[in-house]
Amino acid sequence: MIGERLVEDMTDAERERAQRVESVLPALRDAAEEADRTATFPTSHIALLREAGLLGLVVPEKFGGLGGTLRDLAAATYAMGTACPSTALAYFFHNTSASRGLLPLEAIDAGLFDEQEIPVVRAFAEKVLTRMADGIWLANFASESVKTSGANITIATTATKVDGGWILNGEKSFGCATGVADYYLTSAKLAGYDTAEGLATFFIPRDAPGVSVRAPWDGLGMRATANNGIRLENVYVADDEALGVPGAFTRMLTMSRGSFVGNQLAIAAVYTGCAQRVYDETLTATTNRKFADTGEPIASAPVHQVLFGEMTRQLETAYLWLRYQLAVETAEPPFKPKSEVFTQWRLGKGAVTEACFQVALGALKAGGTSAASMSGFAGRALRDLAMGLVMTFPAERGVLEVARIVTDARANELFATAPAEAVR
């Protein structure tokens, strides 16, 4: 199976879950070119993934899910990345929602919440997981256009308490499955708080009053992800659809094994799957085509030999970083402290995405003028993989943060709230 090219030592249970992923790949592959051309997420994929049980891939079995782990998710997004990177990316962001359920429950078990907080936190966490297991698509909206110097993601969207619930106002600039997901799982800052302790999470139905879609996203990246973002204008969210306990967000983050909220590695797997596909397609094309004068494969030319040697090196670099990061984030018992796992990820994310982009660049060169088309696999891969250079953070920022950690024992925070004046 394709997922085993990344996760080479699958257990029987992992292989069974990977077979579900394998079963949807032909449909994803068939729709990929048209989805890219029209910059439209194929709505048929929603039912496809739901019926395969894949919307609950990383949800524990006791909540109705398949019981997969980060290993399963990485194998799944990698395999989908070989078929349709846009779908793989949107699927990745759906699965990041699981952290909003798993991490709070772990924080409860670790004694980080008091007796009054536990029922509220547990109810919200279990709602996240059971909805995913039931086949509900969740779009995880955190990122915004507002930036602060000391954090990777800054939240300016506000949540004001009212009788029976909350009123949300703000704009989310990045989040796949806009207009596709059933619910937008949205981060906002509680009124009266100016630190990450005031961050909270809310379920917002896609068609809730006050929710609108931003202008269509015509980005240099995966075009069929429905990545437009949303605007929230006086959107009401009931108390039982919110996790508004102050400090709950930051306490749950302490439970992740390393990268971000514990699953960011799977986004790099999307890019690696895309890179593997363009490598394979380029190799096939240049070995099947012959020189008119000698009859030898085009791939045998010295320049192509150099290109394939470099593409192979870059692809193997991506695999090495990704597999090792997967090992340190999933090993039981852990063999590295969280600080070291986190540090490695800041380097690894950049190394993987830069290497994958170089594979696509090599494919463009190897294909020549005739293959330099946005309707071809090389052109699409080059654009798709360009997004990896900037998504979450560029390689240069990761290197800078690691240097700060090494020299100053200081790193950027994951989340921060925006000053009040920045929201106006």
From TrEMBL:
The keyword Oxidoreductase applies. The keyword Oxidoreductase applies. It catalyses: dibenzothiophene 5-oxide + FMNH2 + O2 = dibenzothiophene 5,5-dioxide + FMN + H2O + H(+); dibenzothiophene + FMNH2 + O2 = dibenzothiophene 5-oxide + FMN + H2O + H(+); dibenzothiophene + 2 FMNH2 + 2 O2 = dibenzothiophene 5,5-dioxide + 2 FMN + 2 H2O + 2 H(+). It comes from the Bacteria. Pfam families: Acyl-CoA_dh_2, Acyl-CoA_dh_M, Acyl-CoA_dh_N. Gene3D superfamilies: Acyl-CoA dehydrogenase/oxidase, N-terminal domain (1.10.540.10), Butyryl-CoA Dehydrogenase, subunit A, domain 2 (2.40.110.10), Butyryl-CoA Dehydrogenase, subunit A, domain 3 (1.20.140.10). Residues 150-235 form the Acyl-CoA oxidase/dehydrogenase middle domain. Residues 265-386 form the Acyl-CoA dehydrogenase C-terminal domain. It is an enzyme of class 1 (oxidoreductase). Keywords: Flavoprotein, FMN, Monooxygenase, Nucleotide-binding, Oxidoreductase. It is found in: Cytoplasm. This is Dibenzothiophene monooxygenase.
